[in-house]
């Protein structure tokens, strides 16, 4: 490494927007401005003794990109700084992050409590995958604190929730649930993907672990998959590090490099998207044929007061009910000209999704009804288009 003649800054003391540009950067001897892409599977050692030292841990250098990689490490360090976490581990996808965060903590005979309002694949892990290995689970109404208390058992190992929830944007009291979990001797894992690290900090609210699908806002431009698990150094080392090392859901160095570039603009993008979402939610509420709008930033949201206390803004997501059930929702979505139909979210392009037939289709009709995922519900991920253009598109779609 060349000598660094510039004085070192304590980036942890600076604002998030600065951390997103400079955090976790490690420069090679070439002094590159952009983060270096170390697209390599393995690493060479000068001597056999050097290889031995890497493997026995006395030399903390890199061994193999399934274990760790310089570009991936930069992404992990930047995310940890942004989240206010002691440690982070990147994964190949958001679902790899969620699965590892749970599987790394439990053994046969343990018990997990989770909110019912989860992304469909997360419910699969809790309801179908964990029980195959002798881990029982209980699903609760995440907004009902009494249900969390009642569900805890002596063998409960961890709680899982997402807030806001996907797709109905319920807000769960993270601080209160963390307190219940800790009193029960359990940990709390929070999927913070819809709030983004810019608008909510679950670790500050008492969570033990935060997971993200970096595929969403962190990339933000629909390019690649990725995930990340964050927590204290002890949580990551005791529960996550060896599991990822031995089972191999590794993040590609190339994807890590793309995600690093995405982080540089995360604050700008999310701020603009949330500002547009607030305007668009109000506009949708005035349109004919739309019977309900769910947006945490609106006073008519059921948990608006909690959202104001827990989140920095109403976020980038909107859910709304179209009259006429599935047929009405399909017709409305098909009339949109600017907004694209897809199952992703957090993209620079606005995206509309019909959860009942896509992201949550594997749930039973009864389960969807219980969660408020009705045939007429559409989920909207607000992008970077001009607010007036989006309002015009939804206005013409509502008029038919």
Instruction: List the helices and strands in order.
Output: HHHEHEHEHEHEHEEHHHEHEHEEHEH
CATH class of the largest domain: Alpha Beta
Structural class estimated from helices and strands: alpha/beta
- In the predicted model, the low-confidence regions spanning at least 5 consecutive residues are none
Kindly state the number of beta strands: 12
Mean model confidence by pLDDT: 95
Oligomeric state of shown chains? single chain
The number of helical runs is 15
- What global shape is seen? globular
Whole-number tally of structural domains: 2
CATH T-level topology of the largest domain: Aspartate Aminotransferase, domain 2
Let me know the CATH homologous superfamily of the largest domain.
Answer: Type I PLP-dependent aspartate aminotransferase-like (Major domain)
The rounded Rg comes to: 22 Å
The largest pleated sheet is described as: 7 strands, mixed
Helix proportion: 25-40%
Intertermini distance: 63 Å
**Largest sheet, spatial ordering of strands:** 1-7-6-5-4-2-3
**CATH architecture descriptor name of the largest domain:** 3-Layer(aba) Sandwich
């Amino acid at each position: 490494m060349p000598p660094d003649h510039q004085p070192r800054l304590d980036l942890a003391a600076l604002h998030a927007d600065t951390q997103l540009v400079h955090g976790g950067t490690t420069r090679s001897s070439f002094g590159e401005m952009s983060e270096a892409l170390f697209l390599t599977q393995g690493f060479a050692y000068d001597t056999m003794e050097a290889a031995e030292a890497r493997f026995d841990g006395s030399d903390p250098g890199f061994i193999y990109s399934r274990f760790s990689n310089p570009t991936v490490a930069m992404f992990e360090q930047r995310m940890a700084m942004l989240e206010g976490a002691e440690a982070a581990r990147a994964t190949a996808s958001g679902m790899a992050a969620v699965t590892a965060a749970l599987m790394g903590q439990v053994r046969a005979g343990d018990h997990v409590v989770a909110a019912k309002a989860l992304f469909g694949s997360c419910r699969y892990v809790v309801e179908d995958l964990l029980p195959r290995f002798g881990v029982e689970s209980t699903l609760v109404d995440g907004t009902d604190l009494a249900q969390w208390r009642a569900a805890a058992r002596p063998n409960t190992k961890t709680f899982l929730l997402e807030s806001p929830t996907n797709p109905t944007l319920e807000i769960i009291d993270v601080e209160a649930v963390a307190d219940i979990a800790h009193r029960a001797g359990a940990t709390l894992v929070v999927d913070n993907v819809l709030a983004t690290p810019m608008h909510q900090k679950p670790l500050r609210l008492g969570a033990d672990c935060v997971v993200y699908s970096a595929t969403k806002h962190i990339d933000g431009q629909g390019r690649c998959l990725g995930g990340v698990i964050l927590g204290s150094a002890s949580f990551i080392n005791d529960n996550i590090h060896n599991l990822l090392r031995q089972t191999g859901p590794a993040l590609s160095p190339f994807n890590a490099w793309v995600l690093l570039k995405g982080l540089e603009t995360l604050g700008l993008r999310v701020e603009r998207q949330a500002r547009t979402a607030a305007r668009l939610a109000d506009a949708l509420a005035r349109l004919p044929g739309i019977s309900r709008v769910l947006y945490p930033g609106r006073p008519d949201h059921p948990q608006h007061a909690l959202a104001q206390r827990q989140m920095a803004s109403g976020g980038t997501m909107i859910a709304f009910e179209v009259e006429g059930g599935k047929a009405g929702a399909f017709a409305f979505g098909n009339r949109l000209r600017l907004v694209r139909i897809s199952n992703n979210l957090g993209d620079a392009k606005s995206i509309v999704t019909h959860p009942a037939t896509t992201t949550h289709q594997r749930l039973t009709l009864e389960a969807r009804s219980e969660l408020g995922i009705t045939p007429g519900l559409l989920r909207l991920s607000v992008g970077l288009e001009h607010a007036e253009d989006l309002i015009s598109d939804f206005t013409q779609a509502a008029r038919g």
